[in-house]
Specification:
Layout lengths: L1 H11 L2 E3 H7 L5 H10 L3 E5 L2 E4 L2 H8 L2 H9 L5 E3 L1 H8 L12 E9 L3 H10 L4 E3 L10 E9 L5 E3 L2 E3 L2 H10 L1 H15 L15
Parallel strand pairs: 5-7, 6-7
Antiparallel strand pairs: 1-3, 2-3, 4-5, 8-9
Helix pairs in contact: 6-8, 8-9
Length: 207
């Protein structure tokens, strides 16, 4: 609903007052609509009873503030560990970041099964999108969101202050997804001298 209204507002006016809005878009609760749209990031209050429509590029930058998204997780005060693509990204010291691009940035974390409801409340209270791994999708995933991997127990290591699944588990993830992560295996082998005997890079020869 609000996404469609946002699209209409982008074509209507860049800034408007509550009176402008109510006279053009009849609603049983104008203030609630504007409040909800501001909370979702579609509008910004620029004065008493005045709003500005957020342009798509600005909206995307706000929603894709990756650094803040990572920092937010620690605020939950719950046990977790970065896993999957995030474990690869961190163990390779930022050298390999797959399965993500602008407009689509999942953050993968292992969480304790017993804390799952607490995680759900945490993200809902902060209006953050999340998805339980292997659960049935109720919406199309895009933008920045969290993927939760419920586990009975979590084994983790601290790398640059961040809890991450152990290196051997990260190597296993790469092997299980070899077509995407073979280059990451080579990086991990070089960084940590694992003896994996992985050679992905093309060898240049002189003809």
């Amino acid at each position: 609903m609000y996404e469609d209204l946002w699209t209409v507002l982008l074509e209507w006016r860049k800034e408007f007052s509550v009176k402008d809005f109510s006279s053009t878009f009849p609603s049983p609760s104008v203030n609630k609509v504007l409040h909800d749209m501001m909370k979702k990031g579609y509008l910004k209050r620029v004065g008493w009873g005045k709003y500005r429509v957020i342009e798509p590029k600005e909206y995307l930058r706000t929603k894709m503030d990756v650094a803040k998204a990572y920092e937010l997780i620690a605020d939950a005060g719950l046990d977790y560990a970065f896993t999957g693509p995030d474990a690869v990204f961190i163990w390779t010291k930022g050298g390999y970041n797959a399965d993500r691009f602008i407009g689509f940035y999942p953050i993968h974390i292992s969480v304790l099964q017993k804390d799952l409801n607490k995680w759900k409340r945490f993200f809902k209270d902060r209006n953050r999108r999340f998805y339980i791994k292997d659960a049935r999708l109720s919406e199309t995933l895009f933008g920045l969101f969290y993927v939760l991997y419920p586990e009975v127990r979590i084994s983790s290591k601290r790398v640059e202050g961040m809890p991450i699944i152990p290196l051997n588990a990260t190597v296993k993830f790469c092997r299980d997804n070899i077509y995407t992560y073979e280059p990451a295996l080579e990086m991990l082998d070089e960084i940590y001298n694992l003896g994996l005997r992985v050679s992905y890079r093309e060898v240049k020869t002189n003809k």
